[in-house]
Amino acid sequence: MYGARAARVRRFSLLLLDEEEEYVQDWVVTAAWPVDRVAGNWQRAPLVGGRVRLCTRSLFFEPDDVRIPIVRIPLAAVKSLTSGPPVAAVAAQSGANITSQSPSSASPSSPVPSSPLFHGAVQRSSTAATSSASSNGPSMLLEAREVVLMRANMEEVPYTFLRAPTPATAAGGSVGSGSSSSGSSGKDHSSEPPEYRWAFGPCYSPLQPLLTQAAVLLEINRRPREQRSAAL
User: Looking at the record, which segments are called Disordered (predicted)?
Assistant: First the structure.
């Protein structure tokens, strides 16, 4: 029952957007969560179902499970954004045991949009079938220097800011206070990759619309402030 309720509740609000930021579009996706680097995924499930919500200055990932925090990735902090392998392959590359967090967010076995009949059948699919179905289509692969975690368990608490360790912080330890951090306390960051790596695979639509719009907004957010403000 809790799982059904978790899938219905939506925590995202336009109040989470920055000032002058606008909402663009959303997609149902399966995400490869970097469980070894980003906390909050309480089951440490490498695949998590939810929605990607693309905005003019950031990309949000809202997991179906309300116990897992919403992820905000500022586009200004994104180092790379490309078409990548299936989300299951990305999770496997991280050494994770591939299991699916949400059967309701399975991807069809083909990267093309599913039929309405299959869409309804997804709700009754098993975890094993979900893992298999979500492993085939290409994903949007991005690497970001900053991740913001918010509204886990529907709680209005201070956001958690995760920033990838720079060579200086990797050598001397994380610097910061409050809700900001460079990772787990006491952890050696010297061997970590410099960015947080995420993959998002659309479940019921082709990858290209998401990838194209995200790439355009990423390019705009890399411009000087005056040009960026004019374009957005």
Answer: 98-137, 166-197
Task: Work out how many domains the chain is built from and give that number.
Answer: 1
Predicted confidence pLDDT, tens digits, the chain (232 residues)? 455 454 556 789 998 999 989 999 999 999 999 998 999 999 999 999 999 999 999 999 999 999 999 999 999 999 999 999 999 999 998 754 444 444 343 333 333 333 332 232 333 333 333 444 445 899 999 999 999 999 988 888 899 999 988 766 555 544 443 455 555 444 555 555 689 999 999 999 999 999 999 999 999 999 998 888 888 7
Q: Is 164 exposed, middle or buried (0-12, 13-18, 19+ CB in 10 A)?
A: buried
Buried/exposed 84-104: b ≥16 CB within 10 Å, e otherwise: bbbbbbbbbebebebbbbbbb
